[in-house]
TrEMBL record:
It comes from the Eukaryota. InterPro entries: Polysacc_lyase_14. It comes from Guyanagaster necrorhizus. PANTHER family: DISAGGREGATASE RELATED REPEAT PROTEIN, PTHR40124. This is Polysaccharide lyase 14 domain-containing protein. Residues 4-199 form the Polysaccharide lyase domain.
């Protein structure tokens, strides 16, 4: 059977050898993103964020409609007109995560991930944005993890508490820059570019 790719690409980055993310209780991932002038934001575009899991293979599995209590991912996403959100795969078996579903600007899809804080910030064509995503792991047995996003240019701050699971492996940077959807109204309406630079990841608290 011939495979017809839907477009987009993904990558996962464990971080530099000099930074042992297995020791991280809390990590902050920062980068700069620029959408070219005239960029047309369609229905969906996944950007970069942090992920984690019990093993390397498990860590990469919390996406594409796959959820597990052994991993999570938290990526930025743009929607129509550049409306931003954090697109998460968190175990919904925990109250702190399922409570997202009732928050304003949040939506839990029964098949795919959870949109958190839709429209709390936005991306604009022809402008660059530095984003910082901080993830703090929960204490074992407690639903006290944290997920925070800071956009430097607008000084807008979004903060949500979440339970990130009792998984054993480190927080790692990675992501997906793609367009999802199976119908003709989802893809990018034109050939266009976005640019990423100034990547950094910092352990802001050790285990």
């Amino acid at each position: 059977m011939r495979y017809d790719p839907q477009g987009g690409f993904s990558f996962y980055a464990p971080g530099p050898d000099s930074l042992d993310l297995t020791t991280a209780k809390e990590a902050t991932f920062e980068y700069y993103v620029f959408f070219e002038e005239g960029f047309e934001f369609n229905k969906d575009g996944k950007l970069l964020g942090l992920y984690r899991g019990n093993s390397e293979g498990t860590a990469k599995s919390c996406s594409g409609g796959r959820r597990s209590d052994e991993c999570f991912s938290a990526r930025l996403t743009f929607r129509t007109d550049g409306a931003g959100e954090i697109y998460t795969y968190l175990p919904l078996s925990f109250d702190a995560n399922s409570n997202f579903c009732s928050n304003e600007g949040s939506e839990c899809n029964p098949t795919y991930g959870t949109s958190v804080g839709h429209g709390a910030f936005s991306f604009k064509a022809g402008e660059g944005t530095t984003v910082s995503e901080r993830v703090r792991l929960n204490d074992v047995g407690q639903e006290n993890g944290e997920l925070e996003l800071l956009l430097a240019e607008t000084a807008s701050l979004a903060l949500w508490a979440s339970f990130l699971g009792t998984v054993k492996r480190s927080v790692r940077p990675g992501g997906l820059n793609d367009v999802v959807g199976s119908t003709s109204d989802w893809p990018s309406p034109q050939d266009q570019s976005s640019y990423f630079s100034d990547f950094s990841v910092v352990i802001t608290q050790g285990l």
